[in-house]
Task: structure prediction
Amino acid sequence: MKLSDLRTTLQEIHVSPVKTLGQNFLHDQNLARWIVDQAKITSDDYVVEIGPGLGALTKLALERGARVFAIEKDTRLANFLRERLAHPQLEVLNTDALDFDAHVLFSQRAVKLLANLPYNISSQLLLKFLKYPSPISLWLLMLQKEMALRLSALPSTRNYGALTLHVQLHHRVEYLRAIPANVFFPRPDVDSALVRIMPRDARELPERDDELLMKLIRCGFSQRRKQLQKLLRAYVADWRDVSSNLGFNPKARAEELSLVQWIGLANYIAPAIRPETHAIKEEQFPVVDKMDRVLRYAGRSEVHGDNLYHRAVHIFIFNEAADLYLQQRSRWKDRYPLLWDSSAAGHVSDAENYDEAAKRELEEELGINVPLEKLLKISASPQTDREFIWLYRGQLHGNIKPNRSELESGAFVATATVDGWAAKRPEDFAPGFLQCWQAYRRR
Ligand code: SAM
Result:
């Protein structure tokens, strides 16, 4: 929309831009086109737009054949878009984006997020929509320039901080360009810039305890000018040893450490134990017949290599909000690394029955011991990798203490979200989980 048309439209719909809603509308059409190009939108995409305003970017995303889901807080603008931009591929939701449950987006396949964000809530919105795991495959964000520089900053620069590392831990951030104030009406008081954010492949960075890592980072940046050896005294006994091992100056401040060095520091404090180092001895499993009767015992490699019938347990743990804990399998697992799975799961070994295995797996993987309800049995099939599976359910009242050598990460997810996610992106899950979830939901 040209500036003159934009002014006319605002007059027609009796809207004078509201500063607290960050209503600075883009009127440079060439720039709008360039911006939308950076999201590489195709007709397969489901574009979520936060704050569509008068539709400068919305229209262009629709022209590229995408479905667009626009979240606009201002009712007058939401109504304007519904009426003037009425399009079969457009859905407008009149709500505050901060109240929107981003998990429902798991039930879409290719989600991209486009936003010329209201700057006063941009960090809240960012943290909400960047929460891991996220269904979004690309974020294209117009931000206050200072925020864009913080997100994309490199070590040893003024803008590099805890927010940079928090976002870069799971994402790659590209600073695309500064956007001058004169392309907006009214002109904003601050400079803007465009960033593109994409999820990282989990294998790009070493495994680590994210909770500990972020605790160290926050502590390290709590007093930027202070040396880390003083700030992190409680965590590290021999600072010279750690700094020479990780290749940084012993007098370094927080901003001098790269993300990989921060991860190295967290792993120095709490070393990750790879499963191979303690589970290298061949586990013995009962080999069973088609009726799940024990025939003999055999090693794990023989059972899997020869596709023999065997036994497994899966456990679903729900929290007080009735959300299911999904675990992301360790990157070191020989089968289905990094896929999402039941809260806890594992094989029944030679010395135990199903109930005992369920109790053991829960303790080993999640560090909890809660009463388990035995729910249902799934017959062995190619979809279960020839496992007979007993499914259990437990209710959690305290906290989970995930075992980092067993799982990569985990998250509580609403059951409706699991339904949508499993239906639309089954490739994100280990097949045994899909069998269990379907059986559980059919009950
Ligand atoms: N995308 C349009 C453009 O580029 O011209 C408008 C961008 S304007 C900077 C920000 C938009 O976000 C406004 O339309 C405003 O009403 C809307 N908005 C502000 N706060 C919001 C919130 N919490 N949730 C959803 N939309 C919001």
Q: What stands out?
A: The chain has three domains: 3-204, 210-269, 277-442. The mean pLDDT is 95.
